[in-house]
Predict the 3D structure of the following.
Amino acid sequence: MRAPVLAAGDGALGFWSALREVFPETREQRCWFHKIANVLAALPKSAHPGAKKALAQIWNAEDRRHALDAVTTFKALYGAKFPKAVAKITDDVEELLAFYDYPAEHWIHLRTTNPIESTFATVRHRTKVTKGPGSRAAGLAMAFKLIEAAQARWRAVNAPHLVALVRAGARFENGKLVERPTEHTPPAAA
């Protein structure tokens, strides 16, 4: 398997450690859905509505600069009273905003792991009800069939033609293509 260009995930340290060991060149994108839940867990319920809006200003910004401005605003609004909640954003800001370096059409797919997790939620639900899969073979068969059925409902990636450019090393800034990968051309014969 070739190294993924970008990996999205929550704060599971084992995942990131394994990824860095096997694919050290893969960039990291933290899941916004999980991050928002972690930030809200560090805030009193009364602060949740305002914090949700402030966080949406970050992950839904039109570009990285606006997102960083929104991070500064979030820090100004909540930093004095809730430094732990703010640190959950500021400590991972590069990994939270990595998606801005990819096509804008792909941002919706890159910001969260929820599409993947919703597929596996079905598997988790079944194994919880049956108190486990029984055997390894039964577990694999059940997971395969549930995922196979779920894939019929999967949404196709936006702008699939841009995936090849990303894999080839094209550079994007704030979702826009700024540099295509250079093709290696042999020197002309004299």
Remarks:
- The mean pLDDT is 87.
- The longest helix spans residues 114-129.
